[in-house]
Amino acid sequence: MIDTARFIGAGSQRVLAFGAHPDDLDFGAAGTIAALTAAGAEVQYCIMTDGDAGGFDDRDPEETARLRHEEQKQAAAKVGVKTVHFLGERDGFLEANHDVMRKVVRLMRRVRPTIVIAMHPERKWDRIQASHPDHLACGEAVTRAIYPAVENPFSYPELLHAEGLEPYKVPWLWLCGAPQERENAYVDITEFFGKKMDALRSHFTQHPDVAAMENYVLQQCEENAVRGQLGKGKLAEAFHAVAVNASDTIAGF
């Protein structure tokens, strides 16, 4: 089990969080992000698609994308995130291809985060709705970018030679939405659950039944806390935390 408290309490953290759609990070990690920013960490978001295929109203996709950008910026602000990057990929068509990976590597080299948060690249068979193909593609693109591309000067050499973006070794990758057997890190978000819910409520185009959404999220956070053995009455978010570059890491092994 990874001790997440030491990361939350270290105010010097720089975090780059990737979601496939607007609202994905709010479901998976907003409580953790609120805890990080409250401790002084700098957190930036990168939303990979415009979310233009989401929602329940008969609305033009371009208008949906515009609204969802605004919703995500409002949600981010509620958990202390000031910078939101949008990659502009089409909702439902995200792929872990080299065009997307180049964009991810570029952003990682610019931000140089100590922790990258992303969606898990493995499908959850117990609830397949959590494993939207864009979610899986987000996780796969970010994972491929983290090793080896972001730290390899020969990967996308134009980023180094034309843009001056030096290779960078990411220390940690935290994946949300993991199959339960992969979970190894639980963050106590009891104090920040209200902010998580405020962020989720910002996505008004996505929730035809707000009460049902809130009950579902509360139940999930309660169950996460039980699995993480955090104690009675606690609420938690769960991650598959991977040490990408630890003190004893040997490249290629």
TrEMBL record:
Coiled coil: none annotated. The keyword Zinc applies. The keyword Hydrolase does not apply. Signal peptide: none annotated. Gene3D superfamilies: LmbE-like. Keywords: Zinc. It holds the Pfam family PIG-L. This is GlcNAc-PI de-N-acetylase. It comes from Glutamicibacter nicotianae (Arthrobacter nicotianae).
